[in-house]
Amino acid sequence: MPRKEPEVSTVEEAPGRPTAADSDEEARRQEAVRRYAALETASGGAFDRVAALAARIFHAPFATVTIVGDDRVRVIAAHGPSARRAIFRSPIAGSPFMESPVVVSLCAAAVRHDGPHAVSDARLHPGAAGDPAVRGEPGIRFHAAAPIVTPDGEPLGSVNVMDTRPREAGEEELACLRDLAGLVMDELQVRLVTQRTVEIERQLRAGAERLARTLQRTLLPPALPRVPGLRAAAAYHPVSADEVGGDFYDLFPLDGDRWGFFLGDVCGKGAGAASLTSLVRYTLRAAAVYDADPHAVLANLDAVLQQEHAGGDMPAPYCTAVFGVLQPDGDGFGVTLATGGHPPALAVRADGLVEPIHPAGGQLIGILRNPHFAQVSARLNAGDALLLYTDGLTEARTETGSMLDEDGLTAYLAAAGPTSADALLDTVHDLITDLGEGVSDDAAVLALSVPPATRSSFSGSQGAA
Asked: Are 184 and 231 contained in the same domain?
């Protein structure tokens, strides 16, 4: 291989008082080291291959990839016995550790060179001749280095080759060393971009989660109203923190002493589902003011959704829902329910019996021509409770892989024996926790209960969770 006289450091200038320009230059370099988190860079296959290739090109026993900090030099890759040192103290920036190994001394000096350079014989180098690594083991004599330089010209460290015999470096060898230093810089650049991308994605996800939570809150009542003689509680269990679901519920006063309530689930997720949910909630409340008959309310909602789809190219918007009217009756409440494609409500009786309140039939709302909506009447006596829920709960998978379904939910409630709205919510929360990853869809629950006859007939309300 043709050789030329390399740049050889035969005399090292004594470190005088640093000038302001030197201090500014070093400050910029240290900022670049921090920006690339270079001193914290984990060693890896790419850097190890660079060190191995550098040693092979020079036919040398040792090679390292080093990063120079303000008071230490870190080896992030090494090839050859005894080449790796976890943390080195360097004789730069006024550090008192002047007994540092020659590898450190020369690597620290490498960042002051504009390009690849070589020291032919370290024993003739004033700054290294007294170092134990030169006088003793491993007896370093030759050192070649190429600085690792950022795109804006700041050196972070160097790729180094060392030998135990004095020698010279050829032009081609030094050029290869420069290219290897460029590869290290490329890898550091990729890691920096990746880190920034991950951070941006993390920030975007956090922003999306905040937006989703805010939007979700606008689709649910901030608190349920107080109903004399009734306890009401509701909860929403989202699967994803950054995706808006389509589950909804509400409880509101009608004429006289009657109260309307509903719970349902629109198709889809995200902004489209949020828009449809808002339309459905508004329509249900408005329709109930016009005519509170549950069957008529669902029919009006169906007409609105059908009109939304008329003449459009988008898939038909649809939902499932149960709408009910509460009427005080003695020490309890009469309940009239109408459903459109929704799972049955469950009545939890004071004696622990759990029974479905489910009218026959009841089709999806908004997607079928002339759909049938079913209606049924029931009664909540003192000590009874009523649970409405979306299918995210009953379609969850148990540990056996089967769906929980309505029978599984009924059995769970019967075993727990809750008799109040708050206890029902706690029971459902425990169930969702037990199901864990088996829950793959959002679940909303609305619970209504009549206090036992031995207790006060008035109870406050709990806001939507």
From this structure: no
Domain check: are 262 and 139 in the same one? no
CA distance 116 to 139: 22
Mean per-residue pLDDT pooled into runs of 10, the chain (465 residues): 39 41 83 83 82 94 88 84 49 38 65 89 76 74 93 92 92 95 91 83 69 63 92 90 79 94 87 81 91 93 84 75 94 94 93 86 84 91 95 92 93 88 94 93 94 58 40
Residues 244, 114, single domain; the answer is no
Residue 260, judged by CB atoms within 10 A of its CB (0-12, 13-18, 19+), counts as: buried
Give the integer Cα–Cα distance in Å for 421 and 406.
19
How distant is the alpha carbon of residue 218 from its chain centre?
23
Q: How many domains does the chain have?
A: 2
326 phi/psi in degrees, rounded to 5: -100, 135
Q: Is residue 17 situated within a structural domain? A: no
- Tell me the residue range of the domain where 111 lies: 24-195
Torsion of CA 393, 395, 397, 398, to 10 degrees: 60
**Which residue type sits at 43?**
S
Co-location of 231 and 123 in the same domain = no
Residue 13 lies in a domain: no
End-of-domain residue from the set 160, 195, 230: 195
Could you tell me the sign of the dihedral formed by the alpha carbons of 163, 168, 171, 174, in that order? Answer: positive
pTM metric for this prediction: 0.58
Q: Is 250 helix (H, G, I), strand (E, B) or coil?
A: strand
Is 148 within 8 Å of 185 (Cβ atoms)? Answer: yes
Contacts of 102 (CB under 8 A, 6+ apart): 122, 125, 128, 131, 133, 134, 140, 143
Residue 110 lies in a domain: yes
- Which CATH number goes with the domain that contains 398? 3.60.40.10
Place of tokens 């039939």: 361
